[in-house]
Amino acid sequence: MEKMISLTDKKDPKVIIIPNASNRPITTAEYQMNQFKELGIKVCNFVYASDSLADKDSIIQHISDADIIFFSGGDQRRLTRDLNGSRLLAAIHKRYSDGAVIAGTSAGAAVMSEIMITGDELISQDSTRAFCTIQNGNIATTPGFRFINKAIIDQHFITRKRQNRLVSIVLEHPDLLGIGIDESTAIIVNPDETFDVIGDNAVIVYDARAANKISINSANQFSAADIKMHILTSGQRFNIVKRRVEK
Questions:
Q1: Residue 127: pLDDT above 80?
Q2: Residues near 180 by Cβ (< 8 Å), separated by ≥ 6?
Q3: DSSP states of 115-126 as a string?
Q4: Which residues fall within 8 angstroms of residue 149, CB to CB, at 6 or more apart?
Q5: Is the pTM of this model over 0.85?
Q6: 50 confidence band (pLDDT: 50, 70, 90)
Q7: DSSP per residue over 4-39, as a string?
Q8: pLDDT on residue 19
Q9: Does residue 83 contact residue 111 with C-beta atoms inside 8 Å?
Q10: For residue 51, how many other CB atoms are within 10 A of its CB?
Q11: What Cα–Cα distance (Å) separates residue 45 from each residue in 56, 100, 173, 185?
Q12: Which end of the chain has less Cβ packing within 10 Å, N or C?
C-alpha cells in the first residue's frame, strides 16, 4: 500500500476501493479504508456497484478523479459479473490511461488479465484433489478486465500449489505468459510493460511460446518440451514484451 501511494507522485492522493469480490463487501471496504488512512491518506472511499448501478453517472463520478483504484480480494467472478461491460469499468480504464494507479489483491490481481482464471475446473470434479493434473480444457476461464493482455495472472501461487493450473492454461495459450504471484508479494507493471517484484516471497513466470512437441494424450493430459520458467524475488524486473529477466 505504501508503494501504491508513492507511485502516484501526489501529496494527497485520492483512493477508491472496489470491494465487489468480497462476500462481505462493506466490511472489507471499511477495513481497507482504515488501512489506507493509517498510512496518511485523507481522501479514501469505496464504490460497491452491482448490476445496473455500475452504469449510473452518480457512481462513475466517484472514480473520475481517483489516483488509486484498488480491487479487494474474494471471488474474482463477482468482479467480472458486476463490472464487465459496464460504464464504470470503462471509466476505470480511462483513469488508468490518464495515469492512475490500478491495483488489487488476490481476486483483484487475478482479474487484471484479459483471460482470467476463475478457480473452477471443467473436467475434474473431485474437490478433494483440486488441480491435480496438467490437462487440456480443465481450467475454467472468463474474460478479465484487460489491464494486462500479454499474460495470465494467478495468485497465492506457491503457497497454495497452483502451478498445475497455470501451466495448463499457458499450454492452451502459449502466446501468453503465465505469472504466478505468491502471498505477501506483488508485481508493479510499468508503462513500458516491464514489471518489478516487491514483497516477501516469489513470483514465477512460465513461458511456453518457444515450447515444442506440445501434445495431448488419450487421457487429455499435456506433454511439452522446452517450457521456460523464471523465479523472481523482490528487487528483480521482468520484461513482458521481450520475455526476459532484466535485473
A1: no
A2: 154, 155, 157, 158, 162, 163, 166, 203, 204, 205, 206
A3: EEEEEEESS---
A4: 113, 114
A5: yes
A6: confident
A7: HHHHTT-SS-EEEEE-TTSSSHHHHHHHHHHHHHHT
A8: 98
A9: no
A10: 9
A11: 17, 16, 38, 24
A12: C
Q: How far apart are CA 185 and CA 97, in angstroms?
A: 25
pLDDT tens-digit readout, 97-122: 999 999 999 999 999 999 999 999 99
Short-list 40, 85, 86, 80, CA closest to 63: 86
What are the structural domains, with CATH classification, of the chain? 1-111 (3.40.50.880), 114-247 (3.40.50.880)
137-175 in b/e form (b: 16+ CB < 10 A) is ebbbbeebbebbeebbbbbbbbeeebbbbbbbbbbbebe
Q: Which set of grid coordinates corresponds to residue 114?
A: 484479459
Mean pLDDT over each residue of the chain, to the nearest integer: 95
Q: Give the span between the Cα atoms of 209 and 224, in whole angstroms.
A: 11
Once rounded to an integer, what is the mean pLDDT over residues 200-228? 95
* Distance (Å) of CA 127 to CA 36, 46, 132, 140: 37, 34, 10, 14
Query: Following CA atoms 35, 146, 77, 34 in sequence, which dihedral angle do they give, to the nearest 10 degrees?
Result: 10
Exposed, middle or buried, 7 (CB in 10 Å: 0-12/13-18/19+)?
A: middle
Question: How would you list the strands of the sheet with 151-155, edge to edge?
Answer: 151-155, 177-181, 203-207, 228-232
